[in-house]
Amino acid sequence: MAFPKSVTITDDTMREGLQIERADIPVSEKLRLLDALGETGAKMISIGSFAHPKWTPQMACIDEIAEKFVPKPGIMYTAAVFNQKGFERADKWYPKINVRGRRGFSSHVELCDTFARRNYNRSQAQQIAAIPGTVAAAKKAGAESASVGLGNLFGSNYEGPFSLQQRLEMLDLIVGYWHEAGIPVTKCSFVEAMGWNMPHTVAETLEAIQERYPEITSFHMHLHNTRGTTIASFYEALKFGVDSFDTSIGGMGGCPYCGNGRAAGHVPTEDFVDLCHELGIETGYNLDKLIEAAAIAEEVVGHPLWGHISKAGARPRDKQLYPRDMPFVETLDEAAHFRNGPAVYAGQLSPWREGDALNS
Could you tell me the pTM of the whole model? Predict the structure, then answer.
């Protein structure tokens, strides 16, 4: 397979990122971050989730954010909704916020029954039992295609690893309902909160699905970076031609239901964009603006985030090359000279000066 020419990277900072941070971040600060994200070149931004504040108190202010934020031209703003009530709350702001695309014809099933119960308050069996109703509604509406989602398909902190055979058996079950109705499945999403993905398991699963279901030509990756392997898994997905991903600034994110909290973060948007650009893949993002947004995000949440490009900068070229006689650079503040200028390392030792004899 060949790399895609371009990718769609949905920024999930405001939803996945802030849902695991403290609940008392002022709305004004959240709006400042959302405004900065709107300057990065993002084409799709989730502003948060219309969830019950008992379970996600960080999103208790979502209606105020929806009312007050000023949308940027060329960006589709969306949000997470989990039931009809959430959809109605979000849809009140249409077209400023568009959740209607998320109401497409799709079926999602968790491979981990424990996670299904903890996260959705539904068993895996209940998720499967709901598929016929979804299919019937799609058929009545004249649907020409459908999408499916496999949740936590690589493994579970509660139930252990899942095999390729288990993944394919679940996919067969879901797709079977759609095929019985004469509706082809053209898209498959990998939705993983517990960070069990590995590059080789992602690659083998993509290959097996395409071999078994050639009709599935589109894939979406929402993989948490819990154990630091996800950017490598994304690379394998890119090699396969996958062109749709979720990320968040600085790797913000996490899941209160999976046992890892903030440790179950995302691939940092700025790191993935840098990877894509180095591979010649268009993203639409401005890396410098992403780095600025990452700095703002750290101010908003009050602690360092986990991105690399935001701290070290992109690979310097041409006029951005570092001066050969620059002093020592040791701290993260000093490392930010690429955006804050040489004053940040003033007074440091100089290991080499122009004109010094080498190897003396």
Answer: 0.94
What is the 3-state secondary structure of 123-138?
CHHHHHHCHHHHHHHH
What local confidence, expressed as pLDDT, does residue 37 receive? 97
Q: State the amino acid at position 58 in one-letter form.
A: Q
DSSP state of 5: S
Do 147 and 133 form a contact (C-beta atoms < 8 A)?
A: no
Greatest extent of the chain over all pairs of C-alpha atoms, in Å: 82
Average pLDDT of span 173-196 = 97
**pLDDT of 244 higher than 80:** yes
Per-residue pLDDT tens digits for 137-165: 999 999 999 999 999 999 999 999 999 99
Residue 360's pLDDT is 45
CA-closest candidate to residue 123, choices 111, 136, 132:
111
CB of 58 closer than 8 Å to CB of 30: no
DSSP state of 10: E
Give the pLDDT confidence of 15-53 residue by residue, as tens digits.
Answer: 999 999 999 999 999 999 999 999 999 999 999 999 888
Asked if 246 contacts 272 with a C-beta cutoff of 8 angstroms, the reply is: no
DSSP calls for 97-165: S--GGGGSSEEEEES-HHHIIIIISS-HHHHHHTHHHHHHHHHHTT-S-EEEEEES-SEETTTEE--HH
Please state, in angstroms and rounded to a whole number, the distance separating the CA atoms of residues 246 and 222: 5
What does the DSSP assignment read for 186-227?
Answer: EEEEEEESS----HHHHHHHHHHHHHH-TT--EEEEEE--TT
Which has the closest alpha carbon to 348: 328, 332, 334? 328
Q: What token pair was written down for 345?
A: 């390392």
